[in-house]
Amino acid sequence: MNSFDHKVVEDFVRSMETAGVGAATQSNVFDKLASILLDAHHLGIFDENPLRGVKPPQYTPSRSVIPTANQLAAIRSGGDDSFELLVGLMSGCGLRNGEAAAANIRNIVADDVYRVTEQVNQTTKTYGPLKHRKPGEYRDVPLPLRIKDAIERYADKHGTTDGYLLRHPKDTTRPFQPYLLQNQWQRLKREQELSIPEGVVIYSLRHFFASNCLSHGIPITDVAEWMGHKSIDITFKIYRHLMPGTLGQAARVLDLGLAA
Q1: Which residues contact 259 (CB under 8 A, 6 or more apart)?
Q2: Which tens digits make up the pLDDT trace of 199-208?
Q3: Which of 35, 110, 117, 163 gives 138 a disulfide partner, CB atoms 3.0 to 4.6 angstroms apart?
Q4: What is d(CA 167, CA 173) in angstroms, rounded to the nearest whole number?
Q5: Residue 127 half-sphere exposure toward CB, CA atoms < 13 A
Q6: How would residue 77 be classed by pLDDT, with cut points 50, 70 and 90?
């Protein structure tokens, strides 16, 4: 650790640029390194902040393509029951696909609150802790009545296993795998049974959740927490354009003050 200073970090950033590492990966790697070095600095391992003066890699996500409410309704009803439930959980509660795959009826902790406790890990194929969380940690998200009803209908029709709603279609002893959602999405799109607008992907369902929140005045800090983002900076980079009225509203409020 004693070998680190701002020059070492700057050289590391340049080496990623030289190697042609993508901007998103550069940003993610730098964030992890910065977290480690700042913790070391706070613990007294470094007298000076080794990140002082270092310009982090710049990454601006491309603008998301978000389905309309009518398009979402068509998508939601285009597949089988598991597809409809997964689409609802992602677009209505902001769950990642792995989190939606681990949906459990016991996680309805109030009529309007769903507790996200785990996800299906796409590498291990088993249940595991949430992204950016330690085992046992969770986050609570709003549960719209439409999604609560969908969960209860699915449970009544298909039953549950230890509370889990979705299981592997070929082996009910195994968790439902996120790639099965991708497979059905691609098959329905290929067979033209599902009208998916150009640019809309599975992750667009999470974008719809964020858009729905922000367009109704819900603070971006709450949206960041509900979506499980590690930092509000990530939420702001991705969804800043969904708040076009903020500057105009501020200008009108400030104008009233100036006229007082």
Answers
A1: none
A2: 888 989 999 9
A3: 117
A4: 7
A5: 18
A6: confident
Q: Which residue has 């009529």 as its token pair?
A: 111
Count of CB atoms within 10 A of residue 28's CB? 15
d(CA 52, CA 7): 10
Paired sense of beta strands 139-142 and 113-116, if any? antiparallel
23 class by beta-carbon count within 10 Å (0-12 exposed, 13-18 middle, 19+ buried): middle
Buried b (16+ CB within 10 A) or exposed e, 231-260: eeebbeebbeebeeeeeeeeeeeeeeeeee
- pLDDT tens string 137-185: 899 999 999 999 999 999 999 999 999 999 999 998 999 999 999 999 9
Token pair for residue 174?
Answer: 């195994």
114 DSSP β-pair partners: 108, 141
- pTM score of the predicted model: 0.73
Euclidean distance between CA atoms 130 and 120, whole angstroms: 9
